[in-house]
């Protein structure tokens, strides 16, 4: 960038880099490896070309997802990647609900809430 005005000296030349961040997207995938006390939560996420984080919210009521997994980092990519989190200490024969939450500088996206039942 350069500023020029009549009867003034030209400014120094400067440059800047801009990151155009897309909005992240997320799609919940079915839980896998379900046992009486454990399950793996899955999602397909696209951070929109910038780095970000993903976590899963879960609970025994779709209206109150009161627990959360640790936050995992997402690399700066524009392609959809698989994210997962292993849960343990679950109650047997219980319905659990979960959704994925992706956060980047482009915003936050949450997936649909899905359920699974422990054995």
The main β sheet shows up as: 6 strands, antiparallel
How many helix segments?
0
Please give the CATH class. Answer: Mainly Beta
Low-confidence stretches: none
Give the CA-based shape.
Answer: rod-shaped
CATH topology term: Immunoglobulin-like
Mean pLDDT: 93
Share of residues in strands = over 45%
The tally of beta strands, per DSSP, is 9
How many separate domains?
1
CATH architecture: Sandwich
Helix percent band? under 10%
Radius of gyration from the alpha-carbon trace, in angstroms: 21 Å
Distance between the termini: 63 Å
Question: Can you walk me through this structure?
Answer:
The protein has one domain: Immunoglobulins (Immunoglobulin-like, Sandwich). β3 and β4 (67-68) form a beta hairpin. With 119 residues, it is mostly beta strands. The chain contains no helices and nine strands. The strands form two sheets. Strands 3, 4, 5, 7, 8 and 9 form a six-stranded antiparallel sheet that branches. It has strands at residues 25-32, 38-46, 52-59, 67-68, 72-74, 81-88, 95-104, 107-110, 114-117.
